[in-house]
């Protein structure tokens, strides 16, 4: 083989090797979320390679309860978490950790479910209600719905900590002494099918509410701004794909596979999610202000202005680049 031919062969081999390697090293992220329909944009981003094409390798963990989610973020075990926005507020106000909400999601789609023998919310007087944590998010929704019906916490009913939504629906079905809890899809659909009684949607009683939101430690966000923007770009693209009617059937299959449920339940949950999602995962400021108002009412402690808890600069860059 001539010298020139050897050089050409070597160059071709190097080009082939270079072409088969990723242009940049993957950035690994560990995130934590609660099980539920709200994760559809994440399921899409994983299955369609939306994270991968941006150089991200995302490992998604399921939260057993909000304490583990918040503690894991504070400890650096998770870089990004998705949960009710009030959890981020709780990190700031209770744990004195500087967390920032960087993206919205949905209104929670929460409904108050009770045991079949409960005829009205007032029948919960003297009963025990189940919550994830007693001092955050959907527990405040529950307390507010009961307050509007004339029932006061501690005086009129008892609160029992059970854990995440999937645990609470199991608890109510197994233990009839637990009389009520807040549930969202698909768990609300399972509850209704199993005979628990639906007492109405939270937002119909308490007004707009910013539920699902993504948040990070402020310092980690500043140090990894490009990664946050890439992550949000993939998340928003996943949400847009999921919301496209042309993708509905495939989206339902993704939900059924990831949440291990029948397709009819996944289909019903999909419709509820589409009704409860904010376009492009935008943060609903009126809903977030209501989150803060509920926290103040049910803790007796004032919060900071809404702007102190959020940093939408990453979201704005993600939207601008799409």
Automatic annotation (TrEMBL):
InterPro entries in UniProt: Solute-binding_3/MltF_N
Keywords associated with the record: Signal
Membrane-spanning parts: none
A GO biological process held by the record: alkanesulfonate transmembrane transport
Superkingdom to which the source organism belongs: Bacteria
Pfam families in the record: NMT1_2 (PF13379)
Protein known as: Solute-binding protein family 3/N-terminal domain-containing protein
